[in-house]
Inverse folding.
């Protein structure tokens, strides 16, 4: 590990910001769209971003993307087992 | 009719499962035991395949189950008790999978308790996702089949071999370790399937309540109602039975023989033979194209069409009768153009209008009108073909009954009258690739036999008049008519959701005509102005003041006339296609932006054809070209739709196209081969350019041969040479084109068409008048043909321009035989490309549509699939309707600023 060059994927220009939602925010999101967690788009635990954040299955990840039409666009994905 | 109404039900959901033997017996109206259909006197045999309890198809008989006649009885199922169980082919693979996954002794799934727990949890999480569930099920199967000892009872397992379509072997090992094959008969399989406990079934992908695995092995066979397999009486009086009936006869016959043999205690071998025969018949009854067995044939040798064949494929029930249907109240004929009708109208031939009808309810306001139409009858326009009385009976109007019915009609009746002017109809041209392929039009009944449409709506339909046919549909209810009027009328589709700009607009002559009308120096006499306004249908109370008076004759400029069609307070400016002197355009742009409301005189001084400036509905500068009201980049049209509404835009388009047509027909606008005549000095100049280019190419080749050529980065020496040569030659063509363009002048009709964007590009003129240029295949110079040369007319290895497809002649001067061949090579690539592209993009679109068709935008602005899974949290990430966007962008800030400033400056 020490010998390896450390690399943070979030430093890359093409990787958007990722963030794990708190329990409270999770509830708000589900309420806002009136959905069950199973109706969210998914992201696998094997995803590099999920591993970097050390998120667990059931966590919801907020992805802040740049959008050509809307400027900033938030996307949400639930972490699922691979 | 009355029964139908009482049976109206709403389908809430559909669930699929396997029929259990009890269910089959319960829904059966009769057990079928006799392998015959009709007795000698022509009546159905009791217990036969045409048993009266299964419904009747003879108009003289009544169903013995429901008592209704053949029109009302929906038919009832019967059943056959099979002497021995048989495999259902449709489930053969599923049975194989289940046998492999479960224990041969205790019937439990061969997974440990922990694994069962784990997988059940995973299945629950993925409840709604079909693909995830499928993946899990196949994972479970893989794991379970490899267990050679049952984790529950410890019994040793054997692997199973499946022989298509319905034979299963168990590869057993006896105590001495000898391997042998054991044939598993359906009854044995059924016993094993019965042992599987309900709680293990979800792991096998089954719902224990709807589909127990043992139901996949049939003990009872349902017999479909007679109405599903009607017999036909041929003209010769011979009765021909349906293929399904034939198959059922076979099944019953073999079933009876099997039963007899079993009862008589026949040897096992004979019984198994008959059993296999029964299996064969049942298998082909379900699917006669099962691989591995010969299809059952008719006496004539034609393969029978059994259950699967009725459903499968393009001609099957789904694609032929359910996804696609033939409809009434529709018409199809050749289309032809009519510039005089509005863009939202369609010319309907009289004979079509007399065949298609619209149901109109009788009210106190229209009784008299409808009565007159009934009296006209079906033969005289405008008449009516049918009336519907308050009880819902349809009465056909005929010469003999029109008078009595005309007297009878009253409020509550409905009259199916002929199609009339102003009715809403849907108009369609295949292939229906986008929403603009079906639009609502207003009817205009006309003589002759073609549908007439305005030329401005050709682009959305992709229609031309070389024999194209189109379809027309008449909405039959007020709701449908209103919906078509509000959502589908042509003017609502002027802006395309594809790129947020107009897709309907002036084409070809509309553009050229607009230019001829509005260019600098175009003046018209009073007579001409009155005529063109009359023709265009523009109502003007009073003509504006004439722009100039010469020798006592008043003249109006084309710009003044054009301004009469514009909304009164419209202000807009833009650089158009004719702007080839940027400095001139800039100076006027600066003037406008500084003053915002400059005086007319100031503008007139700097006016140029290349810059359009409309101030408060007055065209002060610039000529009209494709950028005004052409499709795709019609700025003027775009603004009118957005700021004055679709109805005003329709009116504008109708008037402006007619005005342009008047001008172009009265001025005279032609093109011919002499349009491309170049003076001698121009020809000489072009020749010079070509010779220079060929010299340059020759020098490049020399340099290459002497090894003096510097390779470009990332390219080999050969590639460098090729790309340098290509560059030289394409520059030569451009220069030759410029020369031609200069000598042809701006009054040349071909040049007018190319420059205004009406038709063709400058390149096309270059190719006609000056030089065709380099022919290419896949972006490279031509090289295929003989060894190291394209044609035998050249030396092998010749790298020169002419040897590799450079054509120095023009279409007008004519091509040499070699050039002709090169041209054909390049042309062929284009042809093949278009053919391949349409096929590829068609398939791509089909897949895209299949993937996206069920997504919808919810009320909260999110995009979801039918199960509620979110695809986008906001439609298009910005929640904007692309049709209302400005070329894809949400708002046009410039436009808002301009409008506000104009308002402000007007005030003070």
């Amino acid at each position: 590990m020490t010998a390896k060059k450390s690399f943070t994927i979030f430093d890359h220009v093409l990787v958007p910001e990722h963030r794990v939602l708190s329990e409270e925010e999770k509830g708000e999101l589900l309420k806002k769209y009136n959905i069950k967690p199973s109706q969210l788009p998914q992201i696998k635990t094997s995803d590099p971003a999920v591993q970097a954040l050390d998120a667990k299955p059931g966590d919801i990840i907020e992805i802040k993307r740049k959008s050509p039409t809307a400027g900033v666009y938030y996307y949400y994905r639930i972490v699922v087992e691979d | 009719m009355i029964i139908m109404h009482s049976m109206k039900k709403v389908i809430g959901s559909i669930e699929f499962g396997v029929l259990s033997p009890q269910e089959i017996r319960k829904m059966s109206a009769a057990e079928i035991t006799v392998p015959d259909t009709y007795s000698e006197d022509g009546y159905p045999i009791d217990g036969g395949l045409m048993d009266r309890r299964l419904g009747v198809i003879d108009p003289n008989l009544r169903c013995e189950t429901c008592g209704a006649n053949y029109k009302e009885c929906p038919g009832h199922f019967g059943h056959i008790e099979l002497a021995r169980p048989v495999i259902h082919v449709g489930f053969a693979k599923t049975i194989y999978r289940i046998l492999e996954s479960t224990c041969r002794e205790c019937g439990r799934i061969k997974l440990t308790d922990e694994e069962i727990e784990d997988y059940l949890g995973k299945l629950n999480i993925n409840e709604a996702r079909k693909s995830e569930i499928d993946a899990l099920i196949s994972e479970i199967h893989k794991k379970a089949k490899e267990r050679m000892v049952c984790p529950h009872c410890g019994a040793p397992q054997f692997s199973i071999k499946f022989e298509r379509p319905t034979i299963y072997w168990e590869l057993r090992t006896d105590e001495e370790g000898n391997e042998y094959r054991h044939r598993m008969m359906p009854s044995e399989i059924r016993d094993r399937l019965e042992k599987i406990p309900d709680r293990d079934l979800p792991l096998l992908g089954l719902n224990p309540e709807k589909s127990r695995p043992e139901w996949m092995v049939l003990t009872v066979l349902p017999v479909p109602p007679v109405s599903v397999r009607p017999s036909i009486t041929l003209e010769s009086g011979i009765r021909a039975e349906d293929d399904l009936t034939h198959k059922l006869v076979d099944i019953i016959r073999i079933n009876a023989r099997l039963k007899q043999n079993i009862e008589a205690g026949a040897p096992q071998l004979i019984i198994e033979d008959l059993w296999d025969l029964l299996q064969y018949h049942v298998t082909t009854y379900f699917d006669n194209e099962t691989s591995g067995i010969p299809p059952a044939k008719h006496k004539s040798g034609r393969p029978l069409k059994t259950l699967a064949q009725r459903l499968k494929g393009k001609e099957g029930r789904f694609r032929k009768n359910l996804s696609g249907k033939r409809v009434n109240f529709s018409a199809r004929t050749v289309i032809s153009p009519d510039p005089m009708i509005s863009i939202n109208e369609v010319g309907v031939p009289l004979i079509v209008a007399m065949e298609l009808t619209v149901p109109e309810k009788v009210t106190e306001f229209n009784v008299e009108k409808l009565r007159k139409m009934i009296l006209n009858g079906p033969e005289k326009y405008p008449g009516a073909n049918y009336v519907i009385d308050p009880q819902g009976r349809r009465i056909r109007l005929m010469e003999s009954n029109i008078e009595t019915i005309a007297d009878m009609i009253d409020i509550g009746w409905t009259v199916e009258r002929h199609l009339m002017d102003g009715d809403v109809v849907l108009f369609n041209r295949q292939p229906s690739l986008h929403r603009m392929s079906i639009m609502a039009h207003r009817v205009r009944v006309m003589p002759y036999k073609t549908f007439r449409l305005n030329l401005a709506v050709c682009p959305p339909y992709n229609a031309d008049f070389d024999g194209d046919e189109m379809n027309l549909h008449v909405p039959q209810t007020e709701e449908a008519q209103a919906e078509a009027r509000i959502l589908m009328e042509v003017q609502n589709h002027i802006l395309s959701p594809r790129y947020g700009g107009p897709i309907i607009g002036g084409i070809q002559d509309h553009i050229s005509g607009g230019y001829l009308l509005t260019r600098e120096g175009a003046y018209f006499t009073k007579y001409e102005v009155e005529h063109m306004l009359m023709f265009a249908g523009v109502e003007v109370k009073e003509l504006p003041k004439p722009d100039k008076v010469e020798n006592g004759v008043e003249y109006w400029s084309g710009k003044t006339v054009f301004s009469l069609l514009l909304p009164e307070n419209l202000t807009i400016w833009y650089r158009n296609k004719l702007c080839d002197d940027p400095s001139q355009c800039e100076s006027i742009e600066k003037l406008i932006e500084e003053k915002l409301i400059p005086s007319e005189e100031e503008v007139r001084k700097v006016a140029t054809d290349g810059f359009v400036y409309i101030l408060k509905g007055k065209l002060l500068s610039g000529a009209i070209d494709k950028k005004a009201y052409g499709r795709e980049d019609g700025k003027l049209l775009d603004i009118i739709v957005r700021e004055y509404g679709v109805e005003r835009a329709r009116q504008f388009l109708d008037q402006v196209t007619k005005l342009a047509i008047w001008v172009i027909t009265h001025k005279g606008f032609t093109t011919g081969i002499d349009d491309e005549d170049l003076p001698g000095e121009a020809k000489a100049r072009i020749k010079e350019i070509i010779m220079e280019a060929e010299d340059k190419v020759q020098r490049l080749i020399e340099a290459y041969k002497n090894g003096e050529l510097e390779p470009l980065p990332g390219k080999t020496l050969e590639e460098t040479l090729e790309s340098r040569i290509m560059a030289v030659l394409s520059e030569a063509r451009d220069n030759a084109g410029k020369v031609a363009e200069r000598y042809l002048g701006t009054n040349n009709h071909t040049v007018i068409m190319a420059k205004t964007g009406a038709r063709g590009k400058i390149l096309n003129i270059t190719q006609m008048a000056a030089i065709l240029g380099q022919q290419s295949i896949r972006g490279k110079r031509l090289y295929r043909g003989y060894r190291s040369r394209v044609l035998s007319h050249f030396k092998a290895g010749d790298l020169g321009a002419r040897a590799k497809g450079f054509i120095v002649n023009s279409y007008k001067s004519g091509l040499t035989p070699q050039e002709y061949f090169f041209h054909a090579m390049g042309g062929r690539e284009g042809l093949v490309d278009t053919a391949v592209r349409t096929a590829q993009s068609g398939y791509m679109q089909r897949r895209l549509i299949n993937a996206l068709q069920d997504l919808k935008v919810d009320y909260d602005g999110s995009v979801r699939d039918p199960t509620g899974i979110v695809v986008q949290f906001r439609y298009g990430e910005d929640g904007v309707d692309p049709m209302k966007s400005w070329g894809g962008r949400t708002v046009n800030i410039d436009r808002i600023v301009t409008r506000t400033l104009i308002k402000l400056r007007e005030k003070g």
